[in-house]
Amino acid sequence: MFTGIVEELGEVTAVENLGDSSRFRLRGAVVTQGAKHGDSIAVNGVCLTVVEHEDDWFTADVMAETLERSSLGALGVGSRVNLERPMAVGERLGGHIVQGHVDGTGQVIERKPSENWEIVKISLPADLTRYVVEKGSITVDGISLTVVDAGSDHFTVSLIPTTLDLTTLGRKQPGDPVNLEVDVIAKYVERLLGSQGAAGTRGAGQ
């Protein structure tokens, strides 16, 4: 489990095509501290498994489905990425509960700079709209953010200077893809309410 608080801005240094998957080599001096084979690291919000690692880099295999369903397929050598290690038990939950399981991708639509922050508008797939609410949480490229405005096919977030400086969202331009993970609590609530409704219907018919 992650929190959506990016630890460092890493970089893709190599991409090896393995046929039905790709192996990424990524530079990240912070997230490789104490890393072991099999550990998890979130890369732009996607939970990946460490294969090899050295002092400031690690490799991870990305399956074809992940490449197709996330924005990782658009990465190349030199791409910057948000990196985060899993939350340790007993630590503060600085963002919100993030699984590292991308629900879909959106695109940056526009950016509106202000004196001390920036409003970014991002497209939202139709099947995710019901999970996104004003002042709710959403993960964008692994960053825990608060929704400012939730539309039928988009949402906006307000980015402070720290987020702009230390994450990929400071560099994303209109048309660039981003990974989206909605609040898992909303999905559980939907499933539970749906189950209760179905149970109630069956009961009435007996």
Automatic annotation (TrEMBL):
Residues 1-96, 97-193 form the Lumazine-binding domain. It is an enzyme of class 2 (transferase). Catalyzes the dismutation of two molecules of 6,7-dimethyl-8-ribityllumazine, resulting in the formation of riboflavin and 5-amino-6-(D-ribitylamino)uracil. It catalyses: 2 6,7-dimethyl-8-(1-D-ribityl)lumazine + H(+) = 5-amino-6-(D-ribitylamino)uracil + riboflavin. It comes from the Bacteria. Keywords: Repeat, Riboflavin biosynthesis, Transferase. Pathway: Cofactor biosynthesis; riboflavin biosynthesis; riboflavin from 2-hydroxy-3-oxobutyl phosphate and 5-amino-6-(D-ribitylamino)uracil: step 2/2. Lumazine-binding repeats lie at residues 1-96, 97-193. CDD domains: Riboflavin_synthase_like (cd00402). GO terms for molecular function: riboflavin synthase activity. Its EC number is 2.5.1.9. It holds the Pfam family Lum_binding. InterPro entries: ATP_synth_asu-like_sf (IPR023366), Lumazine-bd (IPR001783), Lumazine-bd_dom (IPR026017), Riboflavin_synthase-like_b-brl (IPR017938). This is Riboflavin synthase. NCBIfam families: PRK09289.1 (NF006767), PRK13020.1 (NF009566), ribE (TIGR00187).
